Amino acid sequence: MILGQLAKRCSRIAYNGAAVKVRLAGAQLSLNVLTIRNFHDSDKQSLSLAQELKQDSVSGPIKDQAETTVSDQVAEYSKYMMNTYTRPPMLVDHGKGCYVYDTKGNKYLDMTAGIAVLALGHGHEGVSKVLYEQSKKLNHVSNLFFTKEVCELAKDVIEKTMSSYKEGNAGIYEDRHASFPKIFFTNSGTEAT
């Protein structure tokens, strides 16, 4: 609960690469927090929290992210990348669970993974194994076509959600509403709307 509240509050501030020290149940935890969100001076609560964390919670120096080699690489890559976001001067190299690591070995709590497909974290062995096995058969099939796995998933989701709905709504659920629901698996939120 406390960690969830901390993550919620920290995700509102822009502490790209800041070292944050947190006390949880008497234990001290130092993290590097990576977030791409920006806060505005008009958001007094976020600004106040940012100042409080900066003054009271910084746990000493972290490895220098702006070393010449990293800065040079970032500058070179920036020639080819659209500057859509203000990016921190670092190169993310790999991830494990809810953390990402830069090329210098610094560890960051990844508070941005939920924007796409990383809800299960980075480098999850079970997910990696399933992806590897599936990639030996098919990497991608448009939702224009049927595949056994997709059809079985749709059937499983419908059967489980409908049986749960019927049990939880005894007396409300009527046969006239029993038209069999169907699933459309989308590639994006645009298709879903």
Automatic annotation (TrEMBL):
Q: Which GO terms describe its cellular component?
A: mitochondrial matrix
Q: Does the keyword Transmembrane apply?
A: no
Query: Does Transferase show up as a keyword for this record?
Result: yes
Q: Which cofactor does it need?
A: pyridoxal 5'-phosphate
Pfam families xrefs: Aminotran_3 (PF00202)
Protein family: Belongs to the class-III pyridoxal-phosphate-dependent aminotransferase family.
State the protein's name.
Answer: Putative acetylornithine aminotransferase, mitochondrial
